Amino acid sequence: MDFLTTFPSMGRADLAALRRGIDAGFRDFSREWGEAIEAFFHPLLRFLVWFDNLLVNTPWPIILGAIGVLVWAGSRSWLMTLGSVAAFFLIGYFGMWHDTMSTLAIISVATILCVAIGIPLGILMARSNRAQSTITPVLDVMQTIPSFVYLIPVVMLLGIGRVPGLIAVCIYALPPIVRLTNLGIRLVDRDVLEAATAFGASNWQKLWGVQVPLALPNIFAGINQTIMMALAMVVIASMIGVQGLGVPVLRAISNQYLALGIMNGLAIVALAIIFDRVSQRYGQRLQAHRKGQGQ
Amino acid sequence: MSDAKISIRNLYKIFGKSPDSVLALVREGLSKEDLLAHHDHVLGINDVSLDIQPHGLQVIMGLSGSGKSTLIRHINRLIDPTAGEILIDGEDVLRMSERQLRDLRRFRTSMVFQKFGLLPHRRILQNVAYGLQVQGRSETDSTRAARHWIARVGLDGYENHYPAQLSGGMQQRVGLARALATDADILLMDEAFSALDPLIRTEMQGILLELQQELHKTIVFITHDLDEALRLGDNIAILRDGAVVQQGSAQQIVLRPADAYIHDFVKDINRGRVIRLGSLVEGDAPEGPVLPHDTLLEDALLHLSDAPGQRVAVSDRTGRIVGGVDLKSAIRAIHA
After folding, report:
1. CB-based contact (8 Å) between B102 and chain A?
2. CATH number for the domain including B290?
3. Least C-beta-crowded within 10 Å: which of A290, B116, B153, B205?
4. Pairing mode, if any, of strands B243-248 and B290-292?
5. Over the stretch B285-315, which tens digit does the pLDDT of each residue have?
6. What CATH number has the domain bearing residue A274?
7. Are residues B106 and B220 located together in one domain of the fold?
8. CB distance A293–B111 less than 8 Å?
């Protein structure tokens, strides 16, 4: 009754050979293509470094002012504006200004990248059921696979540094924007779309004049989620060489520095709350037409 | 071929997995019920042929499920038929390329919808200008035209509101203005006033008739409301189970219903508001008052009872006296 008690597995030796084969294959691939891929991502690296330097080197009062203006532009709320500026002031006061700027830089670039990739992908999914059924499982994998697992090939391919960190963040943060863009477009009222067709609107005119504008609230919810998930990746990304608030947190874990960990953790929370509230407020303002008010 | 503006010939529409495979059966007379029960296909339109005259108001009437909204969507090909022909100005809509079809929808037809179909994120002005922008007209041009049509439907001052801020009746005025703004000479109205409450509906019918007197568009008007059909239609086609059961003027349908189904339909309506004197002319014309042939019985009754011998003379379109009508036959016609 051996058959029932031992699972018919592949056998230790074969399994080891298989793993070795895959590892060797990927190693060869990364030796062959690593440089080309690195060159491909080089412009991204330069942009990231430039943006990071910009934030770090700009005098702090200017950054605080800019934050105030952006928050006001997004939320139109004095309370939020003052709160955000005060939060950033405290972050600086507790010595985390430099790291916060680095985190801000990578989050911004990651969000831009995710929007640039995610919205077209979402539109594609909304237009074709086949695209939807192909992309959805990929998104499922991206969202559920433990991030450490995809750090391995990314690091093998690109080494340690900002670009692999950025890619890791994007893999994790991309799915919500794709899903919500797709959902938003699919939820657009059929009657409205039919009216546009009846007036002779081309597919392009329907997409940009009707579908995307009406999907904006959902798209914004997606951007909001993407930002939140990017922030959640800050600590993990710091393991592969991304500068920012994750680095001190990592140091705090390995050395049991309680206060350092809490302070930097709270700074990440502050960033998250500011991003979240401002982008939600902005999304709500886009929907002014849905209520019976607003001019 | 006649000089019809829109000509629908032997149109069939079957919904289901493979409509072509059951088309032959339907042509042989398979009923809608049997088609659904044994072949799992739904018969939408069953051998409809209809000539719609230019500058007239063609009403297509039927209860829900009769296929009327499906039929109107064939005219601008929002739905593709299973078989048949649709000619607009003699041109086959089904042979049109994607581009020609788009131009047809942009320049030659426009549409008003039961659920309005306004763009909720655009202000009223931009909504009315929508068709013109799709046509590629300049911003200033389309805005100017939009303002004109907003004024024509009585919505001045609402240009900067959003649709959600307007009542149903006002939203449909926007829908009407949007459709008129494109200058298309065919206006397709799919249960345009059905979602409105009765008073507003009557008001909108008035607006439509008033505009039509001046614009002379070819209007195809879908409704499930017989009173609306009789009030608006120059010509009425009644649809049941996807087939035309009867077509003709309001009077013809009321006076000579084609079958029991239509008889049932028309028995409760106010016949005095549909039947005109001309259809009751009998015998010689008496001396005294003369009424035109298209006077509604309702309006004629008072004259009839005041007239000597309770009998009036009736004149035709040219003013020539063609005969007489007496009060008794008028009352009989109303209470038939």
Report:
1. yes
2. 3.10.580.10
3. A290
4. unpaired
5. 888 888 888 888 888 888 888 888 888 888 8
6. 1.10.3720.10
7. yes
8. no
